[in-house]
Specification:
The protein is α/β, with parallel strands linked by helices. About 30% of the residues lie in helices and about 20% in strands. It has a single domain, classed as 3-Layer(aba) Sandwich (Rossmann fold), CATH 3.40.50.1820.
């Protein structure tokens, strides 16, 4: 299979065109698909970056070596639009996979959403969105409850990342913050979740992943939560990426089998 780069999947009037990359594994398809959503606090980042602290392309290569096609997507950042634009863009990417994936060797009935940080947040929301073909969600240290997120301190940058997502202070935008909070949108028909978070994360508190896990379990949804000892945001402090990659890949294989 040949990789595809810079494939447009959404053109919203007044905004830049959004593109995705399709990275194919060896062998004949159709292949199960990992739809990857990048991090960056919804402010920065792009589809070419997996986890900034990992060796270049290491994560994408490991996913492909496991037999998955990777569809890595862009979405509008908060300097361009506020929520729910970002979720709408993930939805558009999933629609592209369903419409055009089969012609590129992709099995759109076996998709896993996988994101880190802001991308984990968007992956969780899209997975809760009853999207056809999504078999599971890998959420790495994504915010899950904007209303319960720690309030900014006097020395914090303003607006915060979370404020930029909803267009202003959280207490003044509670309806939008609630809509943007996966932990408050859990339901019994959600797909399985694999959630992992460093217990030394100083940007997104581990309690955010705990809240999502507990909300899913309360609805009877399969959810596993791993708190990685000593790991910070973006897996800082994790010496070997396999420590976090292997459990996520095992989950993805199982739910798409």
């Amino acid at each position: 299979m040949t990789d595809l780069r810079d494939v447009p999947f959404s053109v919203v009037p007044g905004f830049r065109p959004l593109a995705l990359d399709v990275l194919s594994p060896e062998g004949a398809g159709p292949h199960p698909v990992v739809v990857f959503v990048h991090g960056g606090g919804w402010r920065v980042g792009d589809r070419r970056t997996f986890v900034p602290t990992f060796p270049a392309a290491r994560g994408f290569d490991l996913i492909r070596a496991a037999g998955f096609a990777v569809v890595s997507i862009d979405y509008r950042l908060t300097g361009e639009a506020v929520f729910p634009a970002q979720l709408d863009d993930v939805r558009a990417a999933l629609a592209w996979v369903r419409a055009h994936g089969p012609e590129h060797g992709l099995d759109a009935t076996r998709m896993v959403l996988w994101g880190e940080s802001a991308g984990g947040h968007l992956s969780a929301l899209a997975g809760l969105d009853r999207q056809r073909g999504v078999r599971g969600v890998v959420d790495w240290y994504g915010p899950s409850d904007l209303i319960a997120f720690p309030a900014p301190g006097p020395d914090d940058e303003r607006p915060t990342r979370e404020e930029s997502l909803v267009g202003g202070p959280i207490p003044e935008h509670t309806d939008l913050a609630r809509a943007a909070s996966p932990a408050r949108r859990a339901h019994a028909e959600a797909p399985p979740f694999h959630i992992a978070h460093g217990d030394a994360d100083d940007l997104v508190p581990p309690a955010q992943s705990e809240a999502l896990h507990e909300a899913l379990r309360a609805q009877g949804v399969e959810s596993t939560l791993t708190l990685v000892p000593g790991a910070g945001h973006m897996w800082r402090g994790v010496a070997d990426p396999a420590a976090v990659m292997d459990p996520a890949l095992a989950f993805a294989r199982r739910v798409t089998a």
